[in-house]
């Protein structure tokens, strides 16, 4: 099976470099939609702004749906402080210390972009001494220092920066010669790039999947309700392609595709999990099986919303999830291979 991994990495880098915190995903969704259309895959948008792309299969009475989410962690302006700094509120679940010192962009109400840095309110050890390290990192102690000559709330307001404006975290995307991809937001842009490559493989090789296949690109996963609506009605099996989480006590790593058996929502469908394991074994795909105690996916969100189908979760291992993340192209390639073989199986 010849996978065009250069296509995968090129698209992944482009998606990573396009800001898309939950609630502000139109630009990146336009890009993903164009990629599907360039592959001659039909698409439509849901009322919620998600994207559905469809490849007709040999059997159109039963559908399979693969999902990935393009929304990411980020922030919003919560308050304009009297000294010209900005207080922020989180979008998605991350620890404040993981964004300390990070460069960011504030998208003002007039669409102008302003650069800045996320710092604590006591960032200088020369001023605050030991208080700098002792300070608890939370919403009250973190702020944005804008790269503009602003010293008051009025100065900031003249820039047309307002409460509710979006803040984009600098992804700092790097692809190494050894095949690692280092970046924020690999969760779940690595999954979206994998889905595009699955569609490309089917179209390039003129292969019809066994069942009509939908690719659902959701845009509210990081806040818990990404795939809670607008799933194609004929879906009998739903697989979220999202990051796996390597770490102490986990079997996942940065080189294999991981098949999730259980997360915080409970077990995934046993029959579907076993089918995915069997497919990986038969096709010599490097895989792991793992459990995540602090994790939810589009698949679990769909079941909570009342959808009825078998649900599964697979994805590439992403180290330091919800921080400065890293994966390897091997993990993405193994994810692509498992997804393709799953779609070609009866």
Strand content: 25-35%
Query: Using DSSP, what is the number of strands?
Result: 18
Poorly predicted runs: none
Residues in helix, %: 25-40%
Mean pLDDT: 97
Sheet with most strands: 9 strands, mixed
Order of helices and strands: HHEEEEEEEHHEHEEEHEEEEHEHEEH
Rg computed from alpha carbons, rounded to a whole number of angstroms: 21 Å
Content-based structural category: alpha+beta
Cα shape: globular
Can you walk through the features of this model?
The protein is α+β, with helices and mostly antiparallel strands. It has helices at residues 5-16, 26-38, 125-128, 131-134, 153-158, 186-204, 270-282, 298-304, 329-344, and strands at residues 42-45, 51-55, 59-69, 74-80, 86-91, 103-107, 113-120, 142-146, 166-169, 174-175, 180-183, 211-218, 235-241, 257-263, 266-267, 287-291, 310-316, 325-328. The strands form three sheets. Strands 1, 2, 3, 12, 13, 14, 15, 16 and 17 form a nine-stranded mixed beta sheet that branches. A six-stranded antiparallel beta sheet has the order 5-4-9-6-7-8. It has a three-stranded antiparallel beta sheet with strand order 10-11-18. A hairpin with a 5-residue loop joins strand 1 (42-45) and strand 2. Helix 1 (5-16) runs antiparallel to helix 6. The model has no long low-confidence stretch (mean pLDDT 97).
What is the fold's blueprint, element by element?
Elements: H1 5-16, H2 26-38, E1 42-45, E2 51-55, E3 59-69, E4 74-80, E5 86-91, E6 103-107, E7 113-120, H3 125-128, H4 131-134, E8 142-146, H5 153-158, E9 166-169, E10 174-175, E11 180-183, H6 186-204, E12 211-218, E13 235-241, E14 257-263, E15 266-267, H7 270-282, E16 287-291, H8 298-304, E17 310-316, E18 325-328, H9 329-344
Parallel strand pairs: 3-12, 3-13, 13-17, 14-16
Antiparallel strand pairs: 1-2, 2-12, 4-5, 4-9, 6-7, 6-9, 7-8, 10-11, 11-18, 14-15, 14-17
Helix pairs in contact: 1-6, 6-9
């Amino acid at each position: 099976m010849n996978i065009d991994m250069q296509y995968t990495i090129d698209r992944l880098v482009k998606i990573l470099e396009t800001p898309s915190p939950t609630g502000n995903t139109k630009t990146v969704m336009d890009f993903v939609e164009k990629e599907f259309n360039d592959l001659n895959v039909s698409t439509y948008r849901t009322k919620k702004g998600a994207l559905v792309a469809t490849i007709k299969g040999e059997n159109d009475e039963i559908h399979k749906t693969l999902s990935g989410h393009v929304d990411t962690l980020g922030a919003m302006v919560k308050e304009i402080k009297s000294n010209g700094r900005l207080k922020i509120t989180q979008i998605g679940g991350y620890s404040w210390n993981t964004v300390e010192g990070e460069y960011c962009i504030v998208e003002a109400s007039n669409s102008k972009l302003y650069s800045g840095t996320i710092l604590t309110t006591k960032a200088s050890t020369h001023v605050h001494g030991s208080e700098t390290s002792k300070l608890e990192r939370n919403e009250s102690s973190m702020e944005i220092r804008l790269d503009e000559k602003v010293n008051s709330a009025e100065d900031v307001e003249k820039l047309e920066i307002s409460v509710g404006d979006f803040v984009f975290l600098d992804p700092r995307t790097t692809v190494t010669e050894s095949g690692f991809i280092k970046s924020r937001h690999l969760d779940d842009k690595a999954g979206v790039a994998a889905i595009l490559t699955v569609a490309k493989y089917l179209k390039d090789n003129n292969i019809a999947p066994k069942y009509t296949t939908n690719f659902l690109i959701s845009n509210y996963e990081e806040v818990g309700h990404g795939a809670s609506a607008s799933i194609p009605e004929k879906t009998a099996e739903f697989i979220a392609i999202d990051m796996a989480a390597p770490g102490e006590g986990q079997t996942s790593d940065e080189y294999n595709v991981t098949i999730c058996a259980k997360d915080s929502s409970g077990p995934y469908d046993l029959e579907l999990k076993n089918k995915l394991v069997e497919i990986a074994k038969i096709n010599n795909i490097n895989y792991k099986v793992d459990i995540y105690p602090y994790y939810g996916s589009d698949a679990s969100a769909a079941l909570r919303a009342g959808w009825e189908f078998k649900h599964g979760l697979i994805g590439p291992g992403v180290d330091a999830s919800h921080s400065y993340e890293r994966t390897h192209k091997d993990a993405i390639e193994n994810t692509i291979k498992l997804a393709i073989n799953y779609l070609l199986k009866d």
